[in-house]
Amino acid sequence: MTTSETLTVFVVSAEPARAQALAPLLPRASVRHVPDAETLLREAHLTPPDVALLYTNTPGVPLHQVLPMLRQRAELAGTHWLAVGSQGLGDMLSAGVDALISDATPPQAIALQVQSLLVRAQQYRDHHARVSALQRRMDTWEHEERVRDQLVHMLVHDLKNPIAAVMGLLEIVQEDPRVPEDNRDLLKVARDETQHLLHLAVNMLDVRKIQAGKMNLRRELMFTPMFREVVDLACGDVGSGLRDRHVRVDVENDLSPASADPEILRRVLANLISNALKHTMTGGMIAIAVRGLSDAVQVTVRDDGEGIPEDDIPNLFAAFEQSRLTLHGRFDTGMGLAFCKLAVEEHGGKIWVDSVRGQGATFIFTLPLAADNEDDDFAELV
Length: 382
What we know:
Keywords: Kinase, Phosphoprotein, Transferase. With 382 residues, the protein is of the alpha/beta class. The protein contains ten helices and 14 strands. Strand 4, helix 4 (89-95) and strand 5 form a beta-alpha-beta unit. The N and C termini lie far apart (71 Å).
């Protein structure tokens, strides 16, 4: 489209008088005479018209031969093509004109037809301008998102190591027999909060990795003993807060093997157990169960805590959506649950939650069973 506010009309004809007769009838448009097809190809590139009248009796290269080439040009996407004549209209229609009109039509009637097409051209121009503005805003937003993600990644990555060092030092001090007993409780709180901060940092890094498609799963065949080991390790990762809860673990014997990354599964379970810990009172119950289904292994983490409001459930697994206060006075960002959802789905499984406010919550996820060829590979190794 033309960049100026004035709409442009091309009159492609060997007779300049046709354009001269039309110009006074279209005062808001710039009417230009184009003598032949070769000139049309050149001028349409320099100044894309909004409407082009193509007289079929124009000498030289037939217009129906050049029109398909013109219609393929991106800058002419909004041009309306009007064939004028008494012969060759069928060829012009096949070539892609938008309308046909006889060359015996009075200039006033042609002007009305052109004015109608100019209205459509103006609408197209306005629409194109809005789309371009939206695209620029989208490009700006995507650039800002990339910058933000890179900044967050750098910050979190740089924070992870110092946090781990602080947690290690707190463990050393906590085990020192010279520390008074009343200070040990304070050290325990400091260590638990530092561990929570470390988990948050690692979750943010892993969520970004999965979203970027850079999380490479190291799958293994997981049988009952490995599931028990992963659950035990995940409970250890959660920290000393579980000592104040009644934790029950029930892993079904002789499970059919699932194909999963044990380290990522450990992180998923640690997040779900930590979530249960945050939303239960001292002395509360947390039950972890692993069961075999016909086509998957199902893992559940159930608690008897405060439960989840019904309005929160649809957005529960979205990062930064779960901004609700826990029973322990901490706002939950939901980053851990966002990681759980992405990690489980990366395995080909599903995750969901069943909860009634005031009656606890049950988080459930599934892991697909190993394919037959994976079982065969394991049998060969054995």
